[in-house]
Amino acid sequence: LEETPESPKLWNERGVVLHQMGRLADAMESYRRAVEAEPSYALALNNVAIAHAVQGEYEEAIGALRSAIEHQPGLVAPGLNLGLMLFRSGRVQLALQAYRKVLELHPAAAGAWNGLGLILNELGRVMDARNAFARAVEASPNAAEGHYNLSFALSALGEYDDALREVTRAQEIDPY
Known about the structure:
The protein is mostly helical. It has ten helices and no strands.
């Protein structure tokens, strides 16, 4: 950074390291410097949003994520994070729209299928949730979360043998 102080990529990467070290305020300053250097840098905007979310500042996080999506609509992470932030802030229908938008651009995005399934399950649409979780598992067979969530949907539908198979698979992938 001493040699290239205007590099948004370096400021963003510095922010990630500081964030991982637990130095959130310093990380946020680095993310902000990245965005100042390049206001359309979607990855840095996504990281600004994550830092806000960690602090419980969901409105600020949502704003940063929307900006990231506006600047780079094809980047998956901001769309997934927007769905999550909207869901956590109780805006279920907007969260559904966010996940569906990701899936329009990336039909095999396991995280979007999983997020969609969680919301559908919350809405009592267990069959639709099961289908979404099955798509998550299909898109990413080695991701424990999809198998785990699918097991709950299957259990709720009375498909206990299949539910046991899925939870067992989730535990094989990630025992925790």
